[in-house]
Design goal:
The chain has 383 residues and is an alpha/beta fold. 48% of the residues lie in helices and 11% in strands. Strands 1, 2, 3, 4, 5 and 6 form a six-stranded mixed sheet that branches.
């Protein structure tokens, strides 16, 4: 049994318009970075930005004015894209950007939104990287969709997102809704999708401007769902200026886990903070994440400091079984002879539990204990 393994569009009809814990910075950043491993996030924004040169990164970070271009195409041809344009401009304005419509006016970047009743494929690859994300352009989708791209300094950047309707056949959907024009019906649906899809947040993270995201995070009118998205993005950006904001978010039960993940950056300086979370947090999800982080830290840095607190909590009174399971896995990641007897003791205790049908969570705990015993108890290591 092995340890489980734990992510220029120029067109005559284009419209433009004017427009709990006391933590130091290093410890917090390092400790909570390991919590990201439980959440399955895709490739980080910071890693993706390695695609850019230093000059391009500087230009992206200085973006203030965005030229918006919108194109709407139905089966009858190009149609009025004003509604789509208005939505995109409004949404970008929520992040504090100035928007422009006249290409002769000064602007720093061009954001293009192409909406079609029947989408035509413009992707560059079928799989890999961002192509595997839910909002990546799909080769299979032939229904209504908007593709969002941007250009910097006249060069189209390899970033694109796709917004789709809930229906694939606009004619059928329009008929069902008693709407006379399928093309208009599709455009209205896409406009609604653009009202909720968080492309402004994604672009802001892509451009490396965490201050805009943090300002929105702190705004009282920002919804909890949107705050979660922002927290995730600033964490992926590894934005140091986000640390006090995210530490504050730890006090909000609904945001705590995501804030913990977002605070992350690998480094064994985080061990004391992870230990504190494991021992004192009242949220089992955070405790489990901390246990896993300690195991990974101990394994990566061959640091046995993680072992005593893991053993202390392994079979502590009232310990949540999910947390207990993560602790057991973690001990196997950091082989230490001090773990042998406590793991055997827990194994003996678990073998006495007989349930029909078997409790799936107890089964997972038994698997973790069994695997870890094999890792820590070897003749070669302890002879």
């Amino acid at each position: 049994m092995s340890r489980r393994q734990d992510s220029p569009c120029h067109h005559p009809n284009v419209l433009r318009k004017k427009g709990g814990y006391r933590m130091n910075r290093q410890s917090v950043t390092a400790a909570v970075g390991y919590l990201i491993l439980l959440c399955g996030f895709p490739l980080s924004v910071e890693a993706y930005r390695d695609y850019f040169t230093d000059v391009q990164k500087k230009e992206l970070g200085a973006i203030q004015t965005v030229l918006i271009e919108a194109l709407a195409l139905t089966d009858k041809g190009a149609t009025n894209a004003q509604g789509i344009l208005d939505v995109v401009m409004k949404r970008m304005g929520e992040l504090g950007y100035a928007t422009a419509s006249d290409p002769s006016k000064p602007h720093d970047v061009v954001v293009r939104v192409k909406c079609e009743q029947r989408k035509t494929w413009e992707g560059t690859a079928s799989a890999g990287g961002d192509n595997d994300l839910p909002d990546a352009p799909s080769r299979l989708w032939k229904g209504p969709a908007c593709q969002i791209t941007y250009a910097l300094g006249g060069m189209k950047i390899k970033w694109q997102k796709e917004v789709r309707t809930e229906f694939q056949d606009a004619a059928e959907a329009a008929q069902s809704a008693q709407a006379p024009d399928p093309g208009l019906y599709a455009m209205n649906a896409l406009q609604g999708a653009l009202e909720t899809y968080e492309f402004p947040l994604l672009l802001t993270a892509e451009w490396g401007q965490p201050d805009r995201l943090l300002k929105l995070l702190d705004a009282p009118q920002t919804s909890q769902i949107r705050k979660l998205t922002i927290i995730s993005l600033v964490g992926e950006m590894v934005a140091d200026e986000a640390l006090p904001h995210l530490t504050e978010a730890l006090k909000d039960r609904d945001l705590a886990k995501q804030a913990a993940v977002a605070l992350g950056n690998m480094g064994k300086e985080g061990i004391p903070v992870l230990i504190d979370i494991l021992k004192h947090s009242k949220q089992p999800e955070l405790q489990a994440a901390a246990a896993k982080g300690l195991g990974d830290l101990g394994n990566t840095h061959s640091d046995s400091r993680v072992v005593p607190p893991l053993l202390e909590m392994l079979d502590a009174p009232g310990i949540d079984i999910v947390v207990q399971t993560e602790i057991a896995w973690a001990l196997g990641r950091v082989p230490d002879r001090r773990s042998v007897e406590p793991l055997f003791a827990l194994d003996r205790k678990l073998q006495k539990i007989r349930k029909d049908p078997p409790d799936p969570q107890i089964k997972k705990l038994k698997e973790a204990v069994f695997w870890s015993i094999k890792q820590v108890y070897t003749e070669d290591q302890y002879s």
